[in-house]
Amino acid sequence: MFSSKTKRLAAAAAIATLIAAAAFLWLRPHGSSATPATVHAAAYADASTCIQCHQGEAAGYDRTGMAHAFAVATAANTVQSPAPGTQFFHPASATYYSMTQHDGRFYQRRWQLGYNAKPANIEELTIDYVMGSGNHVRTYLHREDDGTLIELPLAWYAESGGHWGMNPGFDNDHPMTRRLIAYECMFCHNAYPEVPATAHRDLSANPVYTGTLPTGIDCQRCHGPGAEHVKLARTKGESMQAIRASILNPSSLSNARQMQVCEQCHLETTSSNLPDRIRHYDREPFSYEAGQPLEDFNAYFARDPAKGNTANFEIVNGPYRLRQSQCYLQSKGALTCETCHDPHDLHKGPSSTAYYTAICLNCHAKTLDTHVAAHLHPATQNCVSCHMPKRRTEDVVHAIMTDHLIQRNAPPAQRLLAARQEIPDTPANAYHGPVRRYLLDGEKPTAVDALYDAAAQLVDSSNLDEGIPALSQLLQQKHPSQPSFYIELGDAMRHNKDLTGAIAAYRQAVQLDPQSSRGLRRLGVALGENGSTAEALSTLQTAINLEPRNATLWYERALIEAKSGDLDKAIADLRQSTAIKPDFADAQNNLGSMLAQSGDANGAEAALRSAMTTNPYDGGIRSNLARVLAGEGNWNEAAFQLQRAAALEPDSATVHQDYAVALLQLKRVPDAQREAEAAIKANPTSAAPHDLLGQILSVRNQSAQARKEFEAALQLNPHFAPAELDLAETMLEQNQLQPAIPLLQDAAQSTNPAIATQARQLLQQLNAPHP
Q1: Cβ distance 430 to 271 under 8 Å?
Q2: Nearest alpha carbon to residue 226 among 42, 65, 97, 58
Q3: Are 637 and 644 in contact (CB under 8 A)?
Q4: Where are the alpha helices (DSSP H) in 26-149?
Q5: Range in 80-89, 152-161, 318-327, 577-586 the model is least confident about
Q6: Residue 52 burial by Cβ neighbours in a 10 Å radius (0-12, 13-18, 19+)
Q7: Considering only CA atoms, which of 614, 659, 616, 619 is closest in space to residue 640?
Q8: Residue 374: which residues within 8 A CB-CB, separation 6 or more?
Q9: Helix, strand or coil for residue 99?
Q10: Which of 145, 268, 401, 595 could bridge to 316 as Cys pair (CB 3.0-4.6 Å)?
Q11: Do 463 and 433 contact (CB within 8 A), yes or no?
Q12: Tens-digit pLDDT profile for residues 359-409
């Protein structure tokens, strides 16, 4: 009764209707999170005043990497850094980078080849600061308008005379585009900066830096606040004893405290998610002073050796590796960092060999002589090269450092220095097991240890099954006044889909600190997810009243408004969010999605292109843009964007399905079939890709195979209207009138107007009853 040609045209019309609808109905919101930020008011002096009395020490210190660990961008440390070529291509992300200079400033430029092989997603950000001395690495930082610093993707590495490479965490097909420089990073790379007064309240707040940043770690990091010392030194008639007593001399400390002066920055058990430390929740980010017990500032943790690697060699592993050495253990605390390292007298180059060997021989001279005489050891005296060899670090794979694990027999250099691939921090690679307390020398148990030990199980989701009940029980017993314990519990419960428990934990946090926008935001989002829309919006409004310039709060409220159906308010809030932070890619993406749903295709395209410029590695943004382009009839670029989206999200059935539709519109039928099959593989329980594959097979005149796919779709979803219509049409082609009519009658009641109309028309042609 119906020819194959009629069927093919009907299928094509159905697909066109489907993609046009999809352009507005399948746009996917893409989530994000961030939070708000203390002024460290200790009496620190202008570091330049130290030089006036301590020129020798200052000159020696100026030769160290610490003195130059943070700097303002200059030609010498940016565009003139020795490296082959001025352009760098990153194959994994198909991205080009270059370092440029114009208008008196320095920039890192990023671009890709886009549609029609033209440069696209071009972003050029100023290099405002350089983190890292250049002894091993230079990382380039851009300062945002809100005072945050972001790490730019391309770094400079000193190895092999200097070369370009991606920063750790960026060497993959989804490199980050807005990694913020956390307070913990700044703590170890610079003198103490000015930060907002709320930084200690919201530990996960956006790390905001106010005013002019210092440039490099100064004398006071090891000697403590120096304002009183400078004041007394300038006071006529003041005694030398009083002047000296007003500043810390680390040599006066116990060996354990001396170690902690170094360990405040150099002790890291791992750079991977664990956590390796938790700053005490009642401490401000930059409130540690040299000489204080470091355990009162940070609680340290390590992996359980039965569950994960504890022999890791990473770029900030010096004391961690040294502490595993028999030399250190047998010294009973006598061996410290300062046994070998004088921060005022840096030893580098050929002369350093004799210097460090002499230190080793203070303990090992007799043993060495005996072993040389017995031909058990070479006569050469270069202890470090054999027993503390240089190695390529596991976390910064382009950097080579001295391994401070003193070994009797180190592996051969070829193995230690061999190139390695970065292993990304992903759920598949993450550590899962108990997080163990890592005790500092002389550390004594305290009343809060158990709370931090339990929280450590949750912070990076390493041990949720044991950590959630442990922290829950401790909170009920101890009732700590720090809201962050409750927030960590809430986050873990939310991760485990326990919204009721999470909401209760967040409520307790907000009760303890009603001014915490972090706690309010967490509570508001959880309430929204739980369907308590009115309270969620009210809670987020309270947070916005406290922090009206927090773009994330407006964003989170918009998502809840959209979920409740109030598209106009959601769009208004997203506009506010992007006005505060124009490069907020997730907000731009969701704004584009919602503008498309409201019928503003031009506004949607503009917002989505803005989102893609900031983050071209998000398949959701590209597929959303493709749907808008499809709705405008721009099938060629839609197919290009969907091809990239499918490469970025190979497990997304929706992306493969959309790409198949676009390919079909471009008459690339075999390619369309391949993508439809990929969609089925990605989501075997979804009816839609089976129906789409059936339509494609119909276009290819494979009616029998097409019918199997329509039937498979209806097996998965018996009332999937597109498949009902398609199967009915196939039956009509095969002159099976009676079984087709019930399918058409059901399809005629579809909420999809195009499907319902076509089904009614066919029923009318058949003189069959229809709704």
Answers
A1: no
A2: 42
A3: no
A4: 50-53, 55-62
A5: 80-89
A6: exposed
A7: 659
A8: none
A9: strand
A10: 268
A11: yes
A12: 999 999 888 888 878 878 888 788 999 999 999 999 999 999 999 999 998
Distance, in Å, from the CA atom of 56 to the CA atom of 248, rounded to the nearest integer, reads 18
Output Rg (C-alpha) for the chain, integer angstroms.
32
89, 295, 573, 586, 610 from 178: Cα distances, Å: 19, 32, 22, 11, 14
pLDDT band at 425 (very low <50, low <70, confident <90, very high): confident
Shortest CA distance to 109 belongs to which of 101, 118, 119, 98? 98
The answer to whether the CB of 597 falls within 8 A of the CB of 27 is yes
Displacement of CA 11 from its chain's centroid (Å): 44
Q: Is-contact 164 83, C-beta < 8 A?
A: yes
Give, as one character, the DSSP assignment of residue 633.
T
- Max Cα separation, the chain? 114
SS3 504: helix
Amino acid letter for position 156: W
CA dist 695 and 699 (Å) reads 6
Q: Is 198:205 a contact under the CB 8 Å cutoff?
A: yes
Which tokens in the block code for residue 616? 């071209």
**Cα dihedral sign, 69-73-78-81:** negative
Dihedral pair phi/psi, residue 301, rounded to 5°: -140, 160
Does the bond joining 670 to the residue before it have cis omega, within 30 degrees of 0? no
For position 20, what pLDDT does the model report?
35
Q: What is the pLDDT of residues 191-238, one digit of tens each?
A: 999 998 776 666 556 899 998 999 999 999 999 999 999 999 999 999
Neighbour-count burial for 187-198, b at 16+ CB within 10 Å, e otherwise? bbbbbbbbbbeb
For residue 277, the cross-strand partners are 300
> Which H or E run includes 98?
strand 95-102
Instruction: Check if the beta carbon of residue 398 is closer than 8 Å to that of residue 157.
Output: yes
Contacts of 107 (CB under 8 A, 6+ apart): 99, 100, 101, 124, 125, 126, 127
Residue found by looking up tokens 């170890």 in the block = 188
Do residues 558 and 573 make contact, with C-beta atoms less than 8 angstroms apart? yes
Give the C-alpha separation, 280 to 28, whole Å.
39
Structural contact between residues 327 and 340, judged by C-beta atoms closer than 8 angstroms:
no
CA atoms within 13 A on the CB side of 576: 18
- Rounded Cα distance between 149 and 127, Å, is 10
This prediction's pTM:
0.90
pLDDT at 433 over 60: yes
Strand partners, 639: none
